[in-house]
Amino acid sequence: MNSKLKQLKEFGIKLTPQRLAILEYLNGNRDHPSAEMIYKAVKEKFPMTSFATVYSTLEVLTKSGVISELKVDPERRRYDPETSPHHHLICTKCRKIVDINAEVSIKIPDYLDREFEIHSRHIEFYGICQNCSKGGANILKR
Amino acid sequence: MNSKLKQLKEFGIKLTPQRLAILEYLNGNRDHPSAEMIYKAVKEKFPMTSFATVYSTLEVLTKSGVISELKVDPERRRYDPETSPHHHLICTKCRKIVDINAEVSIKIPDYLDREFEIHSRHIEFYGICQNCSKGGANILKR
DNA sequence: GTTACTGCAAAGCTTTTGCATCCCT
DNA sequence: AGGGATGCAAAAGCTTTGCAGTAAC
Question: What is the pTM of this model?
Answer without folding.
Answer: 0.89
